[in-house]
Amino acid sequence: MRSFAPSGLGFTAVLSGLIMSASVCGTAAAAEDPVLQADHEFVRAASKGDAAAAGKLLDNDFTWTDAEGRVLARAQVLNAMPTPALGNEDGVTVKRQSRQQVEAFLVGRDKNYVLRIWVKRGTAWSLLLVHEVALGRPAAAGDTEQHECENPCKSIPYKPKNDTEQALLSSWEELETAVATRDAFAWAPHIASEFTMLGSTNDHPLTKADRVSTLNLQRQTGRGTLPPPVVFVQLFEFGDTVVMTRIEALEDDNGDQCADGIDRRPFERQDRGQLLAGAR
Predict the structure, then answer these.
(1) In the chain, is it the N or the C terminus that has fewer CB atoms within a 10 Å radius of its CB?
(2) What are the tens digits of pLDDT across the range 199-224?
């Protein structure tokens, strides 16, 4: 069973409505792109352990989740800078998702990946989260029995503040219901075509087609797992995009539940949000 710092949170991050593309690296590109420049500055500062330089780029709601599930708040990061899983990020692959007020960088090398989400408040960009994921960890065994999914399929411990949040949460519950019932046809409309998911129990980043294939196989074999219950949800709305962070209750080696899930997701602000990317 993993544990979190008392003031830390376990998150799932979700991005919706962002466009995934290969990012352009280099000094000239960064000079013309304030978000790319800021991301490069953060990577340099973090790789050197320079908390003062990194702190200038962090959002007030910033969190850093490492590959072991430990989550650090902004003050904790500035007090003791974590060692980045990818160092100075030499030789990495980079994909970028862009929206009006949200930018996401998905960076990887071998089995180690990092999701960074930048947000625009007023005229300034700041780093909302860093989420590190190590792929290839053992997955829980599938279950042939069909169990009832109450949380998060029908209800979660969160009261939406406006119509946007209500629409997104309704879409999310329908998505999780489709996962619980292994229904790829019902799942697909909630997922953007450029969807990318980082999951520690997978051996590569998953695409929409990968997840559809998995759900179809689960339906054929009758084996699958229920979405874990959610114990905490937080939504950040930035223009046409909402970023969700949440804590899931997972089972430890003894079969007992513990608040240990980390999930981050962005949703597009539409009548029904679509999930674009996530890390857990």
Answers:
(1) N
(2) 888 898 889 999 999 999 999 998 88
